[in-house]
Amino acid sequence: MNTEKENRPSLRPAIGEEDFASFREKGLYYVDKTVCLNYLFEWVHRPMLLRPRRFGKTLMLSTIRHFLELSYEKPGDTSRQQELFRGLRVMEDSEFCEKHMGQHPVLSLSFRDVDGLTFDEAYGSLAGKISDLVKDFLWLDGPELSKYERDPLQRLADREYMGTSDARGYAGFSLSFLSRLLVERFGESHRTVILVDDFDVPLRNAAAHGYYRQMCTFLGGMFGRVVKTNSDIEKVILAGCLMNTDGEFLEGINNMEDDTVMTQSRSLSAAFGFT
């Protein structure tokens, strides 16, 4: 039996593959960018990763999520990460791995297909994304929650209700609210990480259909709650292209540090694409 051949990475093209775990589990060729995780996580306070399409933003966010995400059933168990990241560069940094690998709840969202001819339609699409995320955390509900925590949690998980205009206030504080519940459950040493892919898609679509100001106000308020001073959150990372905006949205979340292909100082360019 030729075990060396069996363990060799597959020559199959990973067309459309964007999940880090799939690359590793299927034996696909993976260009190791994990050496960038330390810098991205510890040196950049609130990174906004701006790259053209097909530049590997989604794969990088997936890599971050798989590295950081806490085992909710067995906090402290990093066996999943040990398997996925075996042999990769990040594992050489034992201090960073001990501090962050498998130590953080992760809230991960993609706004890739959020669209609508009107703000109400687009908001309904976006609210559905939020509701689906919250459903994954309904296990937080329990006797230790107060009525004032349980009721919002249940409302946020109700997709039909969240699509109504009455629910916009709940949607706006959804990420900060979930982060607080997670810290209450797991403690300050396991603060939440928020990852939002294609965060700019609703803004670009809104600009095309004439309701940019409304979408800018909504998203600016939602992200503003998590990127400004928030002791429940360890890191917020936004990724997108960010076209067709006039700067108003960026002013609303001015704690973010944008990193583009043109960034000169300590750029994250090596984390994306082939360099």
Describe this structure in words.
By secondary structure, this protein is of the alpha/beta class. The protein contains 14 helices and five strands. The protein has helices at 3-6, 20-25, 37-42, 57-68, 79-84, 94-100, 119-135, 147-157, 159-162, 168-172, 174-186, 201-209, 212-227, 248-252, and strands spanning 47-50, 106-110, 192-197, 233-240, 257-259. A five-stranded parallel sheet has the order 2-3-4-1-5, sandwiched between helices. α12 runs antiparallel to α13. The longest helix has 17 residues, at 119-135. The model has no long low-confidence stretch (mean pLDDT 86).
Topology:
Layout lengths: L2 H4 L13 H6 L11 H6 L4 E4 L6 H12 L10 H6 L9 H7 L5 E5 L8 H17 L11 H11 L1 H4 L5 H5 L1 H13 L5 E6 L3 H9 L2 H16 L5 E8 L7 H5 L4 E3 L16
Parallel strand pairs: 1-4, 1-5, 2-3, 3-4
Return Rg in Å.
19 Å
Helix content: 40-55%
Please identify the structural class as seen in this structure.
alpha/beta
Largest pleated sheet:
5 strands, parallel
Helix-strand pattern, N to C?
A: HHHEHHHEHHHHHEHHEHE
Question: Uncertain regions: pLDDT < 50 for 5+ in a row?
Answer: none
Query: How would you write the strand order of the largest sheet?
Result: 2-3-4-1-5
Tally of strands: 5
How many DSSP helices? Answer: 14
Provide the residue-averaged pLDDT: 86
Percent of residues in beta strands: 5-15%
C-alpha end-to-end distance: 37 Å
Q: Any idea what the shape is?
A: globular
